[in-house]
Amino acid sequence: MIAAVAVLALLPIEPSHASWLSDLFKGKSKTEKPQKPAAAPKTAAVTKPVVSPKRHHGIKLAALSPAGLPLAAVKLAATKCEPAKFRIVVDVGHTPESEGAISARNVAEFVFNRRLALKIEQKLKAEGFAETKLLVTDGKARASLVRRVAAANNMPANLFLSVHHDSVPNKLLEDWEFEGKKSHFSDRFSGYSVFVSRSNADFPTSLAFAELLAKEMKNQGLRYADQYTLPIMGRYRRPLLNKETGVYRYDELIVLRKTKMAAVLLEAGSIINRDEELKMDSAERRNVIASGVAAAVKEFCDPRWGMLGPL
């Protein structure tokens, strides 16, 4: 077994407080409790406080906090989990009643989310993760969010992945017509993004998986959406945790902060960008993203996948 050293650096960045997505709402972040250093061994003096490793469904994380360490250095130290028993919830973002963003060609985000989530579920099961669960909810935004979180918590799941497609704030939209119908677009921005909440019950593991997922998206030849770092986004800006791969912190998302397991939200690409919408609508792009998710989950369970590939 190849040993992997896990190092986690939590950056002191102030939280942001807004979203234009109709299926997401603001909430107060939990007050963070300072981590307690592990008790010093009786046989030797300890000069620096150490946080004891935590185990989560077979995943062991060692969390140290040396100042100035880049988040790109985060790695996972894992005991090998059993794919056949590892339960992953693939959450279809939004609902038929609360459809999310509308694409440049007037297609609801929920349609894109459901197709991609189904492909991810199929890919994970094909890779041996037989307990993967596709989660589809109905109803209005807030009620559906409560139901999907409760469903994941009651399973219980080991990992929660919410699948979405991106848009932009209304002030950045431009008008056009598609097939005789008025619509809106913004070709200025494109790309995927990965979000985590510091208020999640298991933020260290959430961040570790987010790092793996973003890395695999980049390995698939995709680029991340950098607009969340720009002043033009105003109150919609988000703290960027990894400038190499596009991991952002968004503390207020209920599906991330209320789930009791590690949770990550993936914005797979922009459907308000006319060129990228066509790509997101293709089976080829869905397969690329699903393959990236599967690779990230395999490395999450066993770091050897990331270093050596399938054994």
Features:
311 residues, alpha/beta, Aminopeptidase
Radius of gyration: 19 Å
Mean pLDDT, to the nearest integer, reads: 80
The N- and C-terminal alpha carbons lie at a distance of: 12 Å
Count of individual beta strands: 12
CATH superfamily: Zn-dependent exopeptidases
Net shape = globular
Q: Kindly give the count of domains.
A: 1
The CATH class label is: Alpha Beta
Strand neighbour order, sheet with most strands: 5-4-6-12-9-11-10
**CATH architect. name:** 3-Layer(aba) Sandwich
**Which residue ranges are poorly predicted, with pLDDT under 50 across at least 5 consecutive positions?**
1-79
- List the helices and strands in order: EEEEHEHEEEEHEEHEHHH
Largest sheet features: 7 strands, mixed
Quickly count the helices. Answer: 7
The quaternary structure here is single chain
Structural class: alpha/beta
What share of the residues does DSSP label as strand, in percent? Answer: 15-25%
Helix content: 25-40%
CATH topology (level 3) name:
Aminopeptidase
